[in-house]
Amino acid sequence: MVYTVTLNPAIDYIVSPAKFSAGEINRYQKAVYGPGGKGANVSLLLSSLGVRNRALGICAGFSGGEIVRLLEERGCETDFVRMPQGHSRINVKVCAPDGEETDLNGDGPDTPPEAVEELLQKLDGLGEGDTLVLAGSIPRSVPGDIYAAMLRRLEGRGVLAVVDATGEALRCVLPCRPFLVKPNSDELGELFGVEIPDVGTAKEYAKLLVREGARNVVVSMGDKGALLVGETGQSLFCRAVRGEAVSTVGAGDSLVAGFLYGYGLHGTLQGALQWGVAAGAATAFSKGIASGDAVKALYPRAGNPSPI
Ligand SMILES: Nc1ncnc2c1ncn2[C@@H]1O[C@H](COP(=O)(O)OP(=O)(O)O)[C@@H](O)[C@H]1O
Ligand SMILES: O=P(O)(O)OC[C@H]1O[C@](O)(COP(=O)(O)O)[C@@H](O)[C@@H]1O
Question: What protein family is recorded (predicted)?
């Protein structure tokens, strides 16, 4: 069974004004909104692909209730810790007519240690055959090494760990030997204080994450595609599917969901990467997270990942 954890879920509110200039009134006609936050997005797409999973996390207030309701409405099993104070964030995504996207992502509500402890206890039942996806930002009030603490708590239980995090939260999980980490190229660059202009540079720095403990690293590179570097020295690149991007919000989370779906289907990193790239594109080509059917329809257009 796959479990996703979203410490900082959100309602994603996506608007596409006819013009967008900072400092001015920008009017839009219709908004698309849905449950968001990285783990929640992974759960949404896995459910739509028919992979049984449970979305865990911490939420608060009216928006937290709505996030859970929307997830369940779309077929997800949920088990969120609900906090009595504050409210989960509403992240506004502005898609400008020139294709540029602006994200306004909140900090999230104050999250006391008791809420975190309640969540940790929910993880105690995981064991052999389970996959745990830890994804997204950590609210300020929660210790920055919480993902590493979760993985240490599960050590020796045979749980496959996937981490989509940034900065120190990512770095400190590496000694726990996660099965997969998925920075995008900007996040990988930030970790080392460098720019990642091309696949060759991405490979060089992904290898360093493997040396620090990651078993596999997927570097997502937007409309270029995605690179995988594995602990066996294997590196594969899969070019992005060509098409017109509508909104790339959730493309990275979709890549993670597609990767897990493909890994379950084929049992190979190559198959996993190809499904991941198809899923990322399917979401980039739609507003909001793509449906499982859209991912399956796009899969034949995703090229075979090849050694690089
Ligand atoms: N414009 C696009 N066209 C085709 N595929 C895309 C596009 N943007 C993203 N993708 C696919 O989705 C994956 C994840 O997107 P990316 O933007 O790198 O992740 P994140 O959302 O984490 O920044 C990419 O590796 C790519 O395969
Ligand atoms: O937790 P963070 O890093 O603030 O990110 C949250 C945002 O990222 C998303 O999960 C989308 O992530 P990706 O575009 O990286 O896949 C949104 O749903 C959400 O608003």
Answer: Belongs to the carbohydrate kinase PfkB family. LacC subfamily. Belongs to the carbohydrate kinase pfkB family.
Question: What are the distances in angstroms from CA 155 to CA 18, 136, 158, 183?
Answer: 51, 21, 7, 23
d(CA 289, CA 180): 21
This prediction has a pTM of 0.96
CA 68/CA 200 separation, integer angstroms: 41
Find where tokens 């050694």 sit.
Answer: 307
Ligand positioned closest to the Cα atom of 99: 1
Q: Which of 6, 41, 188 to mutate to test the pocket of ligand 2 (most atoms within 8 A of CB)?
A: 41
Residue spans per domain, the chain: 2-19+31-307
Instruction: Give residue 287's pLDDT.
Output: 85
Q: What is the CA(223)–ligand 1 centre distance, in A?
A: 6
Which ligand sits closest to the CA of 184? 1
Task: Report pLDDT digits (tens) over 49-85.
Answer: 999 999 999 999 999 999 999 999 999 999 999 999 9
The neighbour count for residue 146, using CB atoms within 10 Å, is 22
Mean pLDDT, rounded, of the chain: 96
User: What fold characterizes domain 2-19+31-307?
Assistant: UDP-N-acetylmuramoyl-L-alanine:D-glutamate ligase (3.40.1190)
Q: How far, in Å, from the CA of 107 to the mean position of ligand 1?
A: 24
Find the residues whose C-beta lies inside 6 A of ligand 1. Answer: 184, 220-223, 225-226, 240-241, 243, 245, 248, 251-252, 255, 277, 280-281, 284
Is 253 among the residues known to form the active site? yes
